[in-house]
Structure formats: C-alpha cells, structure tokens
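During the second year of the project, the team shifted from modelling isolated chains to modelling whole assemblies. The rationale, set out in the original proposal, was that interfaces cannot be judged from single-chain predictions alone. As a representative example for this report, we include one of the complexes processed in the last quarter. Its constituent sequences, exactly as entered into the pipeline, are reproduced here:
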Amino acid sequence: MGITRDEVAHLARLSRMSVTDDELDALAPQLEAILSAVARVAEVAAADIPPTSHAVPLTNVMRPDVARPSLPVAEALAGAPATEDGRFRVPRILDPDE
Amino acid sequence: MTDHPTPSATTSAAATTSAVAATDVVQLTAAATAAAIAAGELSAVEATQAALDRIAKVDHTIHAFLHVDAEGALAAARSVDERRAAGERLGPLAGVPLALKDVLTARGMPTTCGSRILEGWHAPYDATVVNRLRAADVVLLGKVNMDEFAMGSSTENSAYGPTRNPWDTTRIPGGSSGGSAAAVAAFEAPLAIGTDTGGSIRQPAAVCGLVGVKPTYGGVSRYGLVAFSSSLDQAGPLARTVTDAALLHAAIAGHDPLDSTSVDVPVPAVVEAAGRRDIRGLRVGVVRELAGDGYDPGVQAAFTAAVETLTALGAEVVEVSCPHFTYALPAYYLIAPSECSSNLARFDAMRFGLRIGDDGQAGAEEVMSRTREAGFGPEVKRRIILGTYALSSGYYDAYYGQAQKVRTLISRDFAAAFERVDVLVSPTTPTPAFPLGAKVDDPVAMYLSDLCTIPSNLAGGPAMSLPAGLVDGLPVGIQIMAPPFADDRLYLVGGALEEALDAQRGHALLDEAPAL
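Output from the structure prediction step:
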C-alpha cells in the first residue's frame, strides 16, 4: 500500500482542485500517514457484517406532491458570482474546438 | 464591571433576586436571565447590551465572533420587551442572547463556514434551528468561529484566524465549535449553538469547562446546516449549566419535514430530566476501551473521581467492554472524508461564493479548479482528496465499505452495552487543551482529540460532555452516552452529577476561570 505524489495529483484533478507542487509535497506524506492509520478497518469487518450507511432506520422519506412557494429569482441569484437575464452566468463548459 | 465572575452568580438563580446590577448580567445563566426578564427585573435590551459590551471588551483577545449583529440583536430584544410589557406570555428563553456557529444559515447575516470560499455570502433562508430560536425569542448576537466546514479539533483551521481558550489564551478552545465554546466560557453569551460530526460540540465544551450535547442523530433538523458529513452532522447546545443546555435543546429539537433524516418522534423530556437530581439505582457503564495509553493521567484522575461521585449518588457503576470502539477513529476518518468529498462538490464557483479566474477565456472546469484551490484551506483539501481516494473504484471495498461494516459493529457494541446499563461514561477527550500550533502539521495527532467522542456519531446516539474538574488549571470533561432518542438520560445524569461536583468544590468550575 502507499499513495504516490502522482496519485495525489490525479485525485486533486478528479476533485477539481488545482494544487501547487509545494502542496503535493506536503499532502502525499500526510495522506500516506492518515491511510496507514485508518487501514486497520480491514482487521475486523468480515464478509457477513452488513454495512451501515446511516444511523437512523429511515427509507424513502416522501412529502406530499404539492406545489409550494419558492425563493424569488432575485433572492436565489443574490449570492451568485455572475448573473445574466435572471439566470446564473457561468464560464463556457465546452472547449472552443468541440 | 468585575471581570471575574463571583461564585454564586453563575451557579444559582439567587443572583437575580438581588438588583441584577449590569455588572453581573453577563454572568447569569440563561435560565436566570430569562427569569429576570420575565419578572421585570431586567430587560432583554439590557441583557443584550451587556453581552454586546462584553464582546466589545474581550473578543479582541478571544476572537470567538466572526460577525456581530448588534442592530438585529437589539431589535429582537426590544420586541421581547414590548411584548412582555403588553402582557404576552413568552417562552423560557425569551430575551436570552446566543452565539450561533457560522455553519448554520441565518437571514441578514453572512454564512462563511470559516472558509474563504464563502466569504461575504449571505444565505437567502434561515436554518430550521435558527427559525426555532427566533420563534423562541432567543436573541442572536451573531456568528462564531469554527474550523473550516467543521473539519478540525482546534478552530485553527478557520480561514479567519484561530479562536483562543478563555482559560489560557495560548491554548486552543477545541473545535470545530471552538467559537461557540469560547464565547460561552468568556461570558460573551450564556448560550451557543454548535455542531458535532465527530465530537465538535463535546470536545470544545470539555476543554472550555462547559456543558455540551450532541443530540440523537435525527433529533434536531439539519436544514440550513451546511453539510460536511451528512450521516454524522448534528447541531446541539453549549451552555454553562445542564439546565441551560436542556432549555436550548428543547427549543431546537423536534421533527422537521424539510430534513428527510429528521425523525418524527416526541422530543425527550430533557428539561424535566435535568431537574430531577436523583440517579439512585441507575446503571452506569464505564467503557473499558476508552482509557489507557494516550490518556493524560490528570484526565483519568478527574474522570475516576467523577465516577466515584456517581457511585456516591447511588448509581450502580460497572465496567463494560465495547471491543470495536478502538476501530471507531479509523472508520470515521474514512466515512467523514468520503461524505465530505461528495458534499463539498457543491462549492463549484457557479451558483454562489468565490469565483476565481473567470476572464472570459477560461472554461468552467479551470475556473472551478482555481476557485477551489484558492478557497479551501489545507485540512479541507486533505479530506476531499482522502475521501475521493476512499471512494475510488478499486479502493471502495477496502476503505469506505469496510468502514461502513465497522459502523455496524460499533452500533452492536452500543446495543449490547445498553442491555446491561442505562448510560455509558468515559473521559470526553484524552488530554486537556493543547497549545495553539502544537498539532497543525500533524493531522493524525490532531484526529486523536476525537477518540472518545466518535462512537456516538457513528451509532447515532446522544452524548454529553460535563465539566469533571481541572488538570493543571485546565478544564476536562466526563462524557455521558445514551441510546438513540434517550437524550433525557444525559440530562438526568448530568444534572445530578453537576450538582454534586459543584457542591464538592463549593462553586461552578467556570468560577475558577481567570479574568480576561
């Protein structure tokens, strides 16, 4: 086991987070130390143990399907970094060549 | 005003019967403040102004507050005074000031979560907890500091600088609800709301000499609580007394249709339980695994003395083994980062918060990556990457899958223990507050702060930290754990133990805190 600097860089890309070389140098050994501390979970949990994802036994909580008032557009957009015509304005999502 | 609380003021309601001089107002408990307001001996505006004056005087040293809403607080207080004068019957916390952890949304105030990525953001809606506080006429003083997105045990991970422990300003106030704990311990507010994902209410309460409670998961709505680890996060009270914590707990708890994980069961009778003060015959289990290596001898001694007091009060104390508790910390540091990596994907620079690099040329992914690089601090980045790793195909079964199985084993340990005993007890933290900076570069050492508190988050049950005593002048706590939805047992045991420990030392622990 072990986590390499390249793997950390790949995980950062998957997480949509730029990281500097200095950050990679610091993160790789820290994550390695954390992973070796948490790997102990493999010691006890056998195949016949069901997983718990949630402490409360609730499934498929529904509410009545009725229309309710929602936030006015101006309030919903008040915290947006950029808006246009009552919508969120975002940077381009496709490469120019595509 | 006297900076040092006088012994009787914090411990008894008797202080209200004397003049309620402005100098003593900030030292009153929440219950005593509300009683004085209801009796017309004190106005809500006076109580609020006293808190604001105290903040102005000491917060440059403590740095608990990120935002003080003096105008909103005084307006809320005036409304209480006007309605009381008109003969309206008000609730048990009407006019009492409160500090709100900056991870809960409140209209009219910024919500930063201690992060640069939300700097200056104002939520367009109130969290359900905030709604209920407003409905109870609690006066919101403002927002208090925290580790970024509630990830940390020291409040040093805040993008806005650390908060300091009022007992020793060179030390951490705990975290992530360090601002909440420091505000109450520094007499800036009698009450605070914190949130607890792995101990973030109980550990700060322990190291600041306060009562702090993580309610049963699903007992308090998470609507408007910015999610870190959705299956673990829970909001709860911090206060100077068990009764104050119970009053606040009762005010915020109860089913909320806006949170699909909120459970529709009656709120346990926590206020009544806090006042019962009789634990004869109650069965108390000391968790064998939450002791030994890594536990400060002083912490262990204070804990043992508190357990002896429980015996003296008539409780039947036995030792109980919960063999899988030693795997709780590793399981938590897989589950919480996994959920965090998913939850924090919403900070994408598109709909709210910071946006960096949007120059008309850069694409959305590049803007996202640059914004998240600039907006998140080191601990948040560590956990996002760790969670992304643990959820990756090829590693999922070995890490996240195994951690979920450990979670089952821990719930089974609790269930088996609660067949034999009514509550479990342990130290709240392995050590007293450590110096600022001591563990910032050693995440694994920092994580050990949560060793005793994590099992209750994983299994969902409620738990309280109560001041046990001092170790070299620093407070330490005893943790009480109960089965899900038996939150009243925490208050039953806490109320009786608090009364006995206060009687032993002749005053409340917080009366020994140094003047600021």
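Chain B has one domain: 7-323+412-512. Chain B has a mean pLDDT of 95.
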